Amino acid sequence: MSPAEAAKHRRRNVFLLALCQAAGMSNATLMLSVTALVGAKLAPDIRLATLPLALQWLAVMLLATPAAFLMKHHGRRLGLSLSAGFGIVAGLLGAWAISAESFLLFCLTSLPFGASAVGVLFYRFAAAEVADEAFKSRAISLVLAGGVIAAVLGPELAKRSKDLLEATFAGGYLMIALLSLVILLLLQFTTIPKPDETERSQGGRPMLELARQPVFIVAVLCALIGYGTMNLVMTVTPPAMIGKGHPFDSAALVIQWHVLGMYAPSFFTGHVIARLGVLRVLFTGAVLMLGCTAVNLLGAGDVWTFAAALVLLGVGWNFLFVGGTTLLTESYRPEEKAKVQGMNEFLVWGTVACTSLSAGALHNAAGWGAINVAAIPPLAGVLLALALFARYRRSGKAAAAEA
């Protein structure tokens, strides 16, 4: 194969991975649009409405590290194909659970869906490994663009499939199964290099030593608080809107704008980090998320207030998550990436699971205002941690500690 043909082949693989990412994120946004509403309808106690979401994130938390090590030893394509297979199971099981009006079965659906969601976390890494050095940044951007497509496609599918079957929202889960099948088929035509012997055999420093690094602590803190507080507010936004008299279509529209806010900045976040520095971007992300809580607490409660707040929430999450991921890469060597990435995902998704579980109960007990007030202290903690870490780096101690 000539160099030109090899480059064309690599770019074809990146494009296929971008399509997989778009389909996987569409499943996620579809699920976010309807799961809390289905949970509220099926749960024996309204406080359990967000339990299915919590179980999904719990599954992601528990499976992220095993998935990272599975791909380390057996390659990305096998792990991603398995996650797509779980998506098919989740979609079919979810449609059955809704049709049968079984809350227990609907909760069980969350486990294979969580397993399928794990795969979405790793598409950007797979694209970077497929692309050549000159195309790597564009490859990552192309894959992240899948989130922008998902912002439109997922909620739109949720609206159009809402009454596809007799049981409301059951058709949406059939769409999840269909999109997962598309992902599985696309992966079979994708070539992803397998890990070499060095990466498979070497482990690097102990995890405890890695976790003691200030750079690791701040990176994980930004990612988990960014994701946790975003999920806390986002999870109950559709029920909060419906409780204020807004129709489901309006709630789905707000989720669309939110997901656009989450992923559209990915096209330039890397450039902003390179220009301004990762700590400034992280600080801005926390401030934007605090702005979301201010809009929600002080706004009129109309559709555009919800939309403006959720866009701020999405952009703030993007800055914290992308910035936190960038900072995390400073904490490990190549042979240590599986354990560090796995631990990061475990902590982040554990936090997401906790916020999903508590969001419904807190909203039911104390209301929409309490949700937003609860997001303020952890975000203030991020700002404090960033200020201390910036001072630590300026003091010169970081260079000695991380050498």
Overview of the structural elements:
The protein folds into 2 domains: 1-195, MFS general substrate transporter like domains (Growth Hormone, Chain: A, Up-down Bundle), CATH 1.20.1250; 205-403, Growth Hormone, Chain: A (Up-down Bundle), CATH 1.20.1250. It starts with a helix and ends with a helix. It contains 18 helices and no strands. The model has no long low-confidence stretch (mean pLDDT 86). With 403 residues, it is mostly helical. It is globular. The relative contact order is 0.15.
How large a portion of the residues is in β-strands, by DSSP E? Answer: under 5%
Helices, by number, come to 18
Order of helices and strands: HHHHHHHHHHHHHHHHHH
Helix content: over 70%
Q: Radius of gyration in whole Å, from Cα?
A: 21 Å
Number of domains: 2
Distance between the termini: 42 Å
Name of the CATH superfamily of the largest domain:
MFS general substrate transporter like domains
